[in-house]
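Form 7-S
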Amino acid sequence: MRRLLLGMLIVGGLVFAGTGFRVWQVARIDDRSHADVVIVLGAAQYQGQPSAVFEARLRKAKHLYDAGVAEHVVTTGGRQERDRYTEAEAGSKWLRAKGVPSDRTVSVGEGNDTLGSLRAVADAVKARGWRTAVLVSDPWHSLRARTMARDAGLDAWVSPTHSGPVVQTRERQFRYIWRETQALLYYRLTKASADQLGADLG
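Output:
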């Protein structure tokens, strides 16, 4: 029994470490291959103004749009109780203010976590005949977002932001990698959201 328990602990440790390495590895990818759409994962907004984390993602999406990576940008994210705007609406508003034409933005204001948002946006994107997508989120979030998007039927790759509060210190980076590793393993085991594992995981 001791050997069995020790073996299980070793295997579990290897799986966790391997997943953490993949989270770190995919965070370093910046794939700017041409796609049908750029999809921006939502984050907090305040009365229509994106938070610093969300704005960093939107700036990256605007850069990809300007570079011709895709002709449309899709913003995602629902609203919290008492919010006037969804995250998706706040994102589209910011993009329009920065010069992206309104007919080039699509707002999908459904879902209060990564899984719900990506399932909703996948339905909206496929309904328009689009299939390929570049996902923009924080680096450490990229692998889980890509996994969920592909499970939802999109041919997706990642071009994460490398600016903003999430990447400011090594301590914060390590904390996010740790949390994302847990969230990704939970999703792979259950195909469910990991929001109960901690705030901001989704």
